[in-house]
Amino acid sequence: MKSKTKTVISLNNISKVYKGPPPVKAVDKISLDIKEGDLVSIVGQSGSGKSTLLNMIGLLDSTTEGDIEIEGQDISTLSDDELSKFRGEKIGFIFQSFFLLPGLTAQENVAEGLLYQGIKREERLKRAAKVLEEVGLVDRLTHLPKELSGGEQQRVAIARALVQNPAFVLADEPTGNLDKKSGDNILKILKDLNKQGKTVIMITHNLDHAKKFKKVVKLVDGKIVA
């Protein structure tokens, strides 16, 4: 018998209202299940609510209504400290801006992703080197961010997101600061990660990029319309 695919993220009728005047409903009663191994793009123009939705999926902001479960854990039951730990262990973030520490090498930047897990430095660096090899940067381990191209810096950021083996990868406009060739390479890496079994969610305003993913969720005025 085929095993049932595990639900990684379950959004249950979630809304986000920012106080006014007038109050603004940025996300309006969204329900969505994302399964293990899904490759999902969430697409929408500026003001569609996609950034607010990203912040709630990434546990960076709370819901006004509804609840979020990650791997069956109701997020609303966690304290602030528990939430921070849970976020660090379960979610691999990739941002439009790379947020690499300028004084650290590529390998050291990736190893930072394991800093708060009680792993010794030697092991952190070993794991970082392995993940950098997986994203095609085995010859850039000792390079500082300023010595890397934009596409290479984004690959370092992807490796940093992967090094802790998160439940899912959440990419926020990962191609936004890149030229077309570098952007296409990043999309290919994300798709390759998904082929290896990783759950990937990408937030984007670029419909052409969104359509390259298996599942496309379109937002307008805080609601899923397609």
Please explain how this structure is put together.
The two termini are 32 Å apart. The protein has a single domain, classed as Rossmann fold (3-Layer(aba) Sandwich). The mean pLDDT is 92. The strands form two sheets. It has a six-stranded mixed β-sheet, sandwiched between helices. By secondary structure, it is α/β, with parallel strands linked by helices. It has seven helices and ten strands.
How is the biggest beta sheet arranged?
6 strands, mixed
Strand content: 25-35%
Looking at CATH, which topology would you report? Rossmann fold
Q: State mean pLDDT (0 to 100 scale).
A: 92
How many strands in all? 10
Helix content: 25-40%
What is the secondary structure topology, with strand pairs?
Blueprint lengths: L6 E12 L5 E12 L3 E5 L6 H8 L7 E6 L2 E2 L5 H11 E4 L11 H6 L9 H14 L15 H13 L5 E5 L7 H16 L3 E6 L2 H4 L4 E6 L2 E2 L2
Parallel strand pairs: 3-8, 3-9, 6-7, 7-8
Antiparallel strand pairs: 1-2, 1-4, 4-5, 9-10
Helix pairs in contact: 4-5, 5-6
Keywords:
226 residues; Rossmann fold; alpha/beta; four-stranded antiparallel beta sheet
Quick summary:
By secondary structure, the protein is an alpha/beta fold. It contains 7 helices and 10 strands.
